[in-house]
Amino acid sequence: MIFLVILFSVKMPSFWICCVCLLLFLSTSDSVPYPSNRCSENDCSYQLQDFMNNTCKIYNTSVCLNFYNIEEFNGETLKSEEESKFYVSIIPYTAELVVKKKHVVATVTRSAINITFAINDIDINKLIVKLYKNVSSTPLCRIFDFHNANNSTKFPINLFYDCLYNLAENGMQNVRMDFIALPLKEKLSYNIFIPGTEYPGSCTWQPLIMVFRGNLHKGIVQVRFSKAPEMCNVSSYMIKLTQHPSGDEKIVEIKPEISKNMLFAQFSSVDGGSYSVSVKPVIWGEHHNYWTKTDKFVVEKPKSLPLFS
User: What start and end residues bound the annotated signal peptide (predicted)?
Assistant: First the structure.
């Protein structure tokens, strides 16, 4: 993240410098202005080193679904994040939006997310992001096309997208998100809990929780989640895996790491069945902290290997 800010401070207009710095480094309990002007454009070239106009383009859902056969580009879900040639993290933030109703102008706060990508392979020249409200819904879709930049850009490429807001308020709190690298057709897939609006100055914090889908068939549940703001004075985090309907639980505790914007936990040798993941901060002096729980997901029963081939 520090690399991104140094890069932007050289290449970006001062208005965008403020937006990006605030977004990457303010705690989630601080609200920041929604970047409506930047989000209304489809150019992401300014995020690249030695950029030229039109070296990076963002296409929205209508273009994405009209110009690309999404089924053709679905790709194969990677079985491990370590296998991937790109990395994804998602940080929630509270966005301030200016709303005009008749002759009244007001500022409202809404939940929003900032998706960041680190692309580590020159063979990747496009990224597709798909967000599903449910299995049968048409996905919200974005395409990041930077194929014109690959010949002159140094790797890794770091990109971000902070223009998705009002998701939790519109019933998209438990979603599935797929990230597909083209032309390799490598896909990272997650079940994601998106927290609702957190009001400035409060500590009613909820994390964004990502459950990696690629290892569920092996009985492995890998979890990443966003950190609480420093004002909450968190000493550690409890991560709980609950089986349904039995209610059996496994709990691990981890310490916060200052250098990371998301924390990681893993449950291995998990039996097949229905599960949910919950996260709770341990806060000094507080004894009634609440768990934030994901929707249920299925862990497949690991297939036993034959004794003889």
Answer: 1-31
